Amino acid sequence: MRSLVNISMGIAAAGLAALALSGCGPSGNKPNVEIIQDMMESPAIKAQEYDETSPHHSGMRVPPENTAPVGFEPYRYATDVEGAAKNLKNPIAGKMDEETLLTGQKYYETNCAVCHGFKGEGAVAANAPAASKMALKPPPMLSDKVKGWPDGHLYHVITMGQGVMGPYASHIPQKYRWQVVNYIRFLEKRDGK
């Protein structure tokens, strides 16, 4: 009798499990009734789209005042070159391992070499095509002027730009800018040999 009860309970449990699992599958993914409008598929508005419900009819929203994106760290020295040169310390100063240099080289060659040359030689380089067409020639990274800059000054120029050079903060992520600084220092050392 007891084994018959155990068997019937096992069959009932298996039936309940099969019934529960039958709701999970291709046919069970879509509800029959949408109780709250737009909860299943919210209407997405692209930033460039016209939105009749917004005050300026733009899909792009202005963030609330005094807010910052998660993980964003504002740059303190936006207009203070001397402060950046004096106070910014390279956290990886002198680190010339392969990974650091390859990352620095990647960002340097992508963003800087077109004007400053692949070896840092500046506008005189045959491989700095943009520099030859500029009225104000970019300085070589190997010049005594740039060699004399503290790492913080180089970091600041990469971040905020200088003269006719625009900022590269949006092109070179913050965590890789010091690696670009180290790569420039590597080019300077290699040139001094």
UniProtKB/TrEMBL annotation:
Metal-binding in keyword set: yes
A Pfam family this chain is assigned to: Cytochrome_CBB3
Keywords: Heme, Iron, Metal-binding, Signal
Domain Cytochrome c residues, every copy: 99-188
Keyword Signal in record: yes
Segment forming the signal sequence: 1-17
SUPFAM superfamilies: Cytochrome c
The protein, known as: Cytochrome c
Organism of provenance: Bdellovibrio svalbardensis
